[in-house]
Amino acid sequence: MTRGDQLEKQVRKLETLLEEKFGVSRGPFEKRIAKPGRMLPRWVRHDLKTVAETRKLMGHPKIGRQLDLAAAEKAATRATSWLKSVDVAERRKTRILHLTGAIALNVLLVFAALIAVLRWRGFV
Asked: CA within 20 to 30 Å of 68's CA: 4, 31, 54, 116, which one?
């Protein structure tokens, strides 16, 4: 098994994890890593971009021999370990709690503004 084959195996594993954890299942790998956006930490996005660029340049006959496949494999391993640690249920709960908190705060501010306007107009 060549190093390029190892990288392709890791890319397939990353694609599977991205589909499981973030629901990204369509398009080429470059599009799949762009979809989750800021839900991924910066270093994971950087690692995924490194893997995607290395994978794209591997097909070139002259540039492919000059690539640092060890760095790309290391980046793929780091990204894989982080994606495995993502808890989908916890992300969903956190997102719902943040949304509920934002709605509650907005209702409270609107109610306070209503009371202030009524008091200012002399109705309360």
From this structure: 31
